[in-house]
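Subgroup meeting minutes
Present: P.N., E.W., G.H.
Scribe: E.W.

1. P.N. recapped why we're keeping a running log of single-chain structure predictions: easier to compare across weeks, and new members can see raw inputs and outputs side by side.
2. G.H. added today's entry (124 aa).
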Amino acid sequence: MPDASWFTQARFGLFVHFGLYSTAARHEWVQTYEQLTPEQYQPYFDHFEPDRFDASDIAATARRAGAGYVVLTTKHHEGFSLWDTALSDFSAPAACGRDLVAEFVEAVRAAGLRVGFYHSLLDW
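Output recorded in log:
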């Protein structure tokens, strides 16, 4: 079993809850709470441009705040992946041409912080 003592020593981390649902600017369960059909949810994919997702800024902010690690939502319940996956075109690279997980990992590690992922197994 890997040594997880760093986690209790880090004590503080940042959780970045970000995904396609962020475009709606309401909540991450927008598709199910508002009972949006895939066709009604499609415009969020069609217009997904995470121009304010700046992994270096996120990492620097976490470091300044004293965080020891940063966790990113890599895929939430609606099935949208923030990385380049061979399993689906319902992903950030397909929507906007960016692998946000790769950007995040590089920036967080460059800031000397540990990286974590939240990945939902649900897929509406």
